[in-house]
Design brief:
The chain is of the alpha/beta class. The protein folds into 2 domains: 191 residues, Quinone Oxidoreductase, Chain A, domain 1 (Alpha-Beta Complex); 145 residues, Rossmann fold (3-Layer(aba) Sandwich), CATH 3.40.50. It is built from 9 helices and 18 strands. The strands form 4 sheets. Strands 5, 7, 8, 9, 10, 17 and 18 form a 7-stranded mixed beta sheet that branches. The protein has a 6-stranded parallel beta sheet with strand order 13-12-11-14-15-16, sandwiched between helices. It binds NADP nicotinamide-adenine-dinucleotide phosphate.
Length: 383
């Protein structure tokens, strides 16, 4: 976010805007006016090293450093395309970003939100014109440049994608980074010829965004799916989404503790999709069948990997890293087309719709592993 030069900086440098409080402009934007020009202040969740003026109070006992507040159009970077955001979604990286985690957030203050979809309002680039429905996908969005928890964003044209055929701004955001990362993980298994007849695939962090998309997608493609979850009251929910069986996280952790000295365990899975890291990932590497595949995308359970070479040299296991943020444009487009073509699913059972006002509370809950599925932020369609 650029600090408008006409603004009076606070002692710590945050621009003071002559603006209304967030609540009073809540209903100022309507879906039928998707391309209306941006003339006045708009709402955004700003990460800052201090509480922004007019910022909503933070959730109780929060270690978040973000507030819902209002900003003025001149505070957006001068990029080629202005998008009126209709949907965003909460992804785990947003937890780290709103805590101003230095490994994730590169500039402060910044508007958080690593995903957004909406309608082009203005464009200085020939690739896009007002009225185009688009989504944003770029590693810097919501981390090094202003992101999608806002009513508008201004981005370079090469951060934008036209919606894949058959998808709406709503479904693209419901998939979001988590769904796309699950799709990348499943696609990796397909590329490695892990077919359903080879045996079950195990998924960790199964009720989370990446986890539940992995469970559902694998089930749709005919795989037997074993889910690991820390939510003891969500076993039936996971089974109704496609898990064949569910392992409580505590049971899985106890098994790993008891067998920690063993370099390999009974090989029972054709592949694993890990969203957790740490001991969980190390344990999964010990349990996959010879020539099996493990994908790793997350670190909610730790960023270490306490393993040995034995899964690799005795069972020829392959560990693939999944990095959705930096996937080049062409393979990204190709995977979205695949999602739109025959990987679409009924997402209603896993999507919780929330408003911009509720984002920080849900981010706080996600930081405590209390959320499930996908949190879709309805921005342009708030009633
Ligand atoms: N590399 C990439 O491109 C990429 C892209 C997207 C996400 N990610 C990463 O993938 C991970 C999951 O992201 P997400 O958006 O799915 O987050 P999420 O919705 O918060 O899901 C994470 C899930 O992990 C489980 N979990 C939480 N804390 C845990 C712990 N201490 N030990 C074991 N399991 C724990 C919980 O599921 P249960 O209660 O069911 O166990 C939780 O719901 C994050 O680390 C995120 O940064 C990476």
């Amino acid at each position: 976010m650029t600090s408008g030069s006409a603004k009076t900086p606070t002692p710590a440098g945050y621009p003071l805007n002559e603006i209304t409080t967030p609540k009073t402009i809540k209903n100022s934007i309507h879906p039928e006016n998707n391309t209306m020009p941006l003339n006045g202040p708009f709402r955004a969740i700003v990460v800052s090293d201090q509480q922004p003026p007019n910022g909503q109070p933070l959730p109780k006992n929060s270690n978040l450093k973000a507030s819902l507040t209002t900003i003025t159009p001149d505070q957006l970077a001068d990029e080629a395309v202005l998008v009126r955001i209709e949907y965003s979604s909460i992804n785990y990286k947003d937890v780290l970003a709103t805590q101003a985690h230095p490994g994730v957030v590169k500039n402060l203050p910044i508007i958080a939100g690593i995903t957004a979809s909406g309608t082009v309002v203005e464009s200085r680039d020939d690739q896009f014109k007002p009225g185009d429905q688009v989504f944003v996908a770029h590693a810097k969005f919501g981390t090094a440049a202003d992101g999608g928890f806002a009513e508008y964003c201004r981005v370079p044209a090469d951060w934008l994608f036209q919606l894949p055929d058959g998808m709406s701004t709503e479904t693209v955001s419901a998939w979001g980074t988590a769904g796309f990362t699950a799709a990348q993980s499943v696609d990796k298994l397909l590329q490695q010829n892990i077919t359903p007849d080879l045996g079950p695939v195990i998924v960790s962090g199964a009720t989370g965004g990446v986890g539940i998309f992995s469970v559902m997608l694998l089930h749709k493609l005919g795989y037997e799916v074993v889910a690991i979850t820390g939510k003891d009251d969500h076993h039936e929910w996971l089974k109704s989404r496609g898990a064949t069986s569910v392992i409580p996280r505590s049971e899985f952790a106890a098994l790993l503790d008891e067998t920690s000295k063993q370099p390999l365990l009974k090989s029972q899975y054709a592949a694993a999709i890990d969203t957790v890291g740490g001991n969980t990932l190390a344990g999964l590497l010990k349990m996959v069948q010879p020539r099996g595949v493990v994908t790793a995308c997350g670190m909610v359970g730790g960023n270490d990997l306490p393993t040995t070479v034995f899964p690799f040299i005795l069972r020829a296991i392959t560990l693939f890293g999944i990095d959705s943020a930096n996937l080049p444009r062409q393979p990204r487009q190709k995977l979205w087309d695949k999602i739109a073509d025959n990987w679409q699913m009924d997402l209603s059972p896993i999507v919780t719709r929330i408003s911009l006002d509720e984002v920080l509370d849900h981010i706080q809950r996600m930081s405590q592993a209390k959320t499930k599925g996908r949190l879709l932020v309805e921005i342009g369609n708030e009633k």
